[in-house]
Design brief:
It is a single chain. The protein contains 4 helices and 11 strands; from the N terminus they run H-H-E-E-H-E-E-E-E-E-E-E-H-E-E. By secondary structure, the protein is α+β, with helices and mostly antiparallel strands. The chain has 2 domains: 44 residues; 130 residues, Umud Fragment, subunit A, CATH 2.10.109.10. The strands form 2 sheets. Strands 1-2-11-3-4-9-10 form a 7-stranded antiparallel sheet. Strands 7-6-5-8 form a 4-stranded antiparallel sheet, with no helix packed on it. Strand 6 and strand 7 form a beta hairpin. Helix 1 packs antiparallel against helix 2.
Length: 183
């Protein structure tokens, strides 16, 4: 929202300035510079990633290509059910795509593969029955500044159940769109 308002204000100012200038070449230069600035901003706001593995199946499968919005969490915090890109806490040189299950202060418990957040079933209908594990885990309270993440293919996901909570600073973007399915 803040970015949209900023772009609107800058657009209005550039439009006003361009209409006031009498030299056509200067007008063309300013319009070109503005368009280039917007394209650079868009180009640096999104990053392409290739999915490696099936931990987020059926949403994403091995070989799918996605766009990740790298600005998303500069303006708001990650929320439950956001699909995020994060640095793998065990090896930060590697990135993972996971779903945020719980935020700081939430209590997470898994009973027979069913996730409960603050003693309320998570409502994870997006997890197919054959992808659901039947394990028990927790209860644990998510520490301040951390998140609990899981893959949608619970039987094939390395996630917070195995390596713990994810620091907020390790979440570097939100998956915005699928570019190409490798199916």
């Amino acid at each position: 929202m803040t970015l949209a308002v900023g772009v609107l204000i800058v657009t209005a100012l550039v439009g006003w300035l361009v209409n006031r200038l009498r030299v056509p070449e200067l007008r063309a230069f300013l319009i070109g510079a503005f368009v280039a600035l917007i394209l650079v901003e868009i180009g640096t706001s999104f990053q392409h990633a290739r999915i490696d593995g099936n931990s987020m199946a059926p949403l994403f499968r091995n070989g799918d290509h996605v766009l990740i919005n790298t600005l998303a969490y500069r303006f708001r915090e990650p929320r439950r059910n956001d699909v995020v890109a994060l640095y793998y806490p065990v090896n930060p040189a590697t990135s993972f795509i996971e779903r945020v299950i719980a935020e700081e202060g939430d209590m997470v418990r898994i009973v027979d593969g069913r996730v409960h957040v603050n003693d309320v079933p998570n409502g994870d209908e997006y997890v197919q029955a054959d992808f659901r594990s039947h394990e028990n885990w927790g209860p644990q309270v998510v520490q301040e500044g951390y998140y609990f993440v899981m893959g949608d293919h619970r039987n094939s996901s390395s996630d917070s159940r195995h390596w713990g909570f994810v620091p907020k600073k390790y979440i570097w973007g939100r998956v915005a769109a699928t570019v190409w399915h490798a199916r």
